[in-house]
């Protein structure tokens, strides 16, 4: 975790983001980045797609959704997708991405970030619990709904 930063998905980073490889067994728990790219194109006013760079290398992708007017409270401030390259997992990249998305949510006035995921042995539940999410429910499709409480910034909305 030498030089991590988030950058808006762009023509320069889209191919690397779209070719991120996961560890065996993880593919069944997350849709390909190409689906996020399509969702961001369809929902440009609410989608927040970002790549995680370590130096100049794309090592992860996260997409949030910010829609304060959504009828579904769970979708107002949420993680739609997070992928970390198999070779980069275990180095704090996912935690960095989630914290950056939470900071963006805080700057937009949200006090909670949600995520939905399918439980399973190779699934993301342990990761989400480790970074502070708590399971708060289940969708009609058997996915877990988890939430992360976002603390107010010590500097107000600027931090």
Polypeptide structure, described:
With 159 residues, this protein is of the alpha+beta class. It has a single domain, classed as Gcn5-related N-acetyltransferase (GNAT) (Aminopeptidase). Helix content is 23%, strand content 30%. It has a 7-stranded mixed beta sheet. The model has no long low-confidence stretch (mean pLDDT 88).
Largest sheet data: 7 strands, mixed
Give the overall shape.
globular
Q: What is the helix tally?
A: 4
Structural class: alpha+beta
Residue share in β-strands: 25-35%
Which residues form runs of ≥5 with pLDDT under 50? none
Kindly list the characteristics that best describe this protein:
Aminopeptidase, 7-stranded mixed β-sheet, alpha+beta, 159 residues
How do you describe this structure in short?
23% of the residues lie in helices and 30% in strands. The chain has helices spanning 14-18, 33-42, 93-107, 125-130; strands spanning 4-8, 47-54, 57-66, 77-84, 112-117, 134-138, 144-149. The relative contact order is 0.16.
Write the layout of secondary structure elements.
Elements: E1 4-8, H1 14-18, H2 33-42, E2 47-54, E3 57-66, E4 77-84, H3 93-107, E5 112-117, H4 125-130, E6 134-138, E7 144-149
Parallel strand pairs: 4-5
Antiparallel strand pairs: 1-2, 2-3, 3-4, 5-7, 6-7
